[in-house]
Design goal:
It is a single chain. By secondary structure, this protein is an alpha+beta fold. It folds into 2 domains: 129 residues, Peptidoglycan synthesis regulatory factor (PBP3), Domain 2 (Sandwich); 217 residues, Beta-lactamase (3-Layer(aba) Sandwich). Helices cover 31% and strands 26% of the residues. The chain is built from 11 helices and 17 strands. β7 and β8 form a beta hairpin. α2 runs parallel beside α7. The protein starts with a helix and ends with a helix. The N terminus is likely disordered.
Length: 388
């Protein structure tokens, strides 16, 4: 298949998702590619990322190690969710509240010493109200002690690629060896949204009641913007006021991290400004559809002479708004494909770029197996290949 044919295929895919006008060359200086610099914020560090594509849209000192305060509880929740999924604990397990958990300082969810509280209630107390007592009780239930649970948190952080993170507790109370970065926080936030949609709903819950006390979610953006559905606030004297926020508008999810502001109003203002910037100037589109043919290629010595080639998973890209029609494509395949072909084995790659900058790359696979042909087919194609 020629490059022009590939472009026609991609154009049809974009048309199916509401985009038109794919070309193999870019309009230089197109207005759609002009993205203003991110807004000036008061935060010490921040980062804005598209959840689906993983593309960074804005950032400042996103790799600087900082005190995360109660943003820590994103990993605390992730570790608990992992253990629920693995059936090591259950949502309705009764947790006996130890004196250690009950005496933990800072924000509280008002659980009584010696009482038994379900895991589901403790999770709400931690997620919605940021209760340190609930966090320690969950840590003890999962791992036996908070220190052992912190080891588990660090193990999961390593699995998620959080290379600049070190946890020493489940609450985020200050410790010289307890730190993370805005970029690493994005990783655990995205993992929660991606892996545990059934539990993610708690991050948009505005209040919860336990022990006769009703407490509100500390994330004020839940009241200011109906598209915001998470995630977590944090504050200590050393960390300042922090917020991880996530919003979903017209099918596009953005996640923002703001660290080190000087007030609750500032962290909400900075977060909302970041989200609005992302939605105003960017859009996320499905560029390639899993299982749809991008190329029909000749196969030698096989039962079939032709095979359709495509991607195994949808390919998404976050682009300057209105620029999707200017994507250029490059397909790389061997000059000769010889049977047998296995759908599990990649044959080549397709690369997509915008304004001469790469935006996505994916492996190409045969969309069906092609077994080795008969002896007659093999012999015939051997001769034809000699004549090529």
């Amino acid at each position: 298949m020629t490059q022009r044919t590939l472009s026609r295929v991609l154009a049809s895919l974009l048309w199916l998702t509401g985009l038109t006008g794919l070309t193999t060359t870019l309009a230089q200086g197109a207005d759609s590619l002009q993205i203003p610099a991110p807004p000036a914020l008061s935060a010490k560090a921040y980062m804005l990322v598209d959840h689906t594509s993983g593309q960074k849209l804005a950032g400042l000192k996103e790799n600087e190690r900082l005190d995360p305060a109660s943003i820590t509880k994103l990993m605390t929740a992730y570790a608990v969710f992992r253990n629920i999924k693995n059936k090591r604990i259950g949502l309705e397990d009764p947790v006996t509240i130890s004196e250690t958990a009950w005496r933990t300082g800072g924000s509280r969810s008002f659980i009584d010493l010696g009482s038994q509280v379900p895991v589901s209630v403790l999770l709400q107390g931690m997620i919605i109200q940021s209760g340190n007592d609930a966090s320690v009780a969950l840590a003890e239930h999962v791992a036996g002690s908070e220190s052992a649970f912190a080891d588990l948190m660090n193990q999961y952080a390593k699995e998620l690629g959080m290379q600049d993170t070190s946890y020493r507790n489940a609450t985020g109370l200050p410790d010289p060896e307890h730190y993370t970065t805005a970029a690493d926080i994005i990783k655990v936030a995205n993992a929660i949204i991606r892996e545990f949609p059934e539990h993610y709903r708690w991050y948009s819950q505005k209040e919860y009641s336990w022990n006769g006390i009703t407490q509100s979610n500390r994330n004020g953006l839940l009241w200011r913007d109906s598209t915001v559905d998470g995630m977590k606030t944090g504050h200590t004297d050393t960390a300042g006021y922090c917020l991880v926020s996530s919003a979903l508008r017209d099918g596009m999810r953005l996640v923002a991290v703001v660290l080190g502001t000087d007030s609750p109003a500032a962290r909400e203002r900075d977060s909302h400004t970041l989200l609005n910037y992302g939605y105003r100037f960017w859009e996320t589109k499905r560029i390639l559809v899993a299982g749809q043919s991008l190329n029909e290629s000749r196969v030698w010595k096989g039962e079939s002479e032709l095979v359709n080639i495509g991607v195994k998973q949808d390919v998404w890209a976050t682009l300057p708004r209105g620029s999707a029609g200017q994507i250029s494509s490059k397909l790389s395949l061997p000059t000769q494909l010889v049977a047998p072909l296995d759908p599990a084995t990649a044959l080549g790659t397709v690369s997509l770029s915008l304004d001469n900058k790469p935006i996505a790359e994916a492996k190409l696979y045969p969309l069906k197996p092609v077994p080795t042909g008969s002896l007659w087919q093999q012999g015939r194609d051997t001769v034809l290949l000699w004549l090529e």
